[in-house]
């Protein structure tokens, strides 16, 4: 029996010990029209992080931990929880309460000294865009453009890698435009977690890509929105720009070939079609998922996510 206080488990037991739960959160075009700022996202993520860490889970994040960001706040909470976290026990499956996946070339900026300072609090996973990092002749001719393409590639590979290793994911917000990868980041993360069969929790009340996904699942008789099928305004580079540095028929470990990656939107459309009939299978009832997709109440959101995780993992 667990007694829940303000985000802390007060009874003995860590039912999510050795589990890795990804949190993907970002500001988006809908926040201001909805009457919110990123401060509200901070509040939600603080409450979620306390619950997850209190239950013994480790938290995964893919991307750079910028100062003052939502994820840097979650990282700070993990530091406070580190001493009592199951990851500190002998034989633990997870290396730390916080696991940060860094794509090329961002991980090249992480010094060994900085990484050592985070030992026991944050474990870093470096993800290159391919096994062979030597520049091709094409890249040497246009190094700046090649860097953009390779970074896009690496972000896709990082998201696939994270989804391979995580047990569940919580998605909040997500930009529809001005993204750096193959498709909007939260959208791509949703695709990979769904394809991996992970419990997925869509917090739709704060808008963005997650609200689009929730709407697509909430109204199965309607056509998918343009962003979800790759016809909305999208960032650069486009798929065909990747060909020089992401050859077809080349497998990259946790990632896929260029040919498969270029069909991401088709795969997402097919996946949404299956979910419309089968449901998310995330430990929540249809009514509870509908509540999570629409809720703007932090206490309700945290309670629903907790309920789902306890049932699904």
Q: Would you give an account of this structure?
A:
By secondary structure, the protein is an alpha/beta fold. The chain contains twelve helices and six strands. A six-stranded parallel sheet has the order 4-3-2-1-5-6, sandwiched between helices. Helix 7 links the parallel strand 5 and strand 6. Helix 7 (185-195) packs across helix 10. Mean pLDDT is 83; it is low at 1-12.
Helix content: 40-55%
β-strand amount? 5-15%
Mean pLDDT over the residues:
83
Largest sheet: 6 strands, parallel
Largest sheet strand order: 4-3-2-1-5-6
Can you write the helix and strand succession as a string?
A: EHHEHEHEHHEHEHHHHH
Task: Count up the helices.
Answer: 12
The unreliable regions are 1-12
Total strand segments = 6
**Sheet/helix structural class:** alpha/beta
Compute the gyration radius: what is it? 19 Å
Distance between the termini: 17 Å
Shape: globular
List keywords for this structure.
313 residues, alpha/beta, six-stranded parallel sheet, 6 strands, 11% strand, disordered N terminus
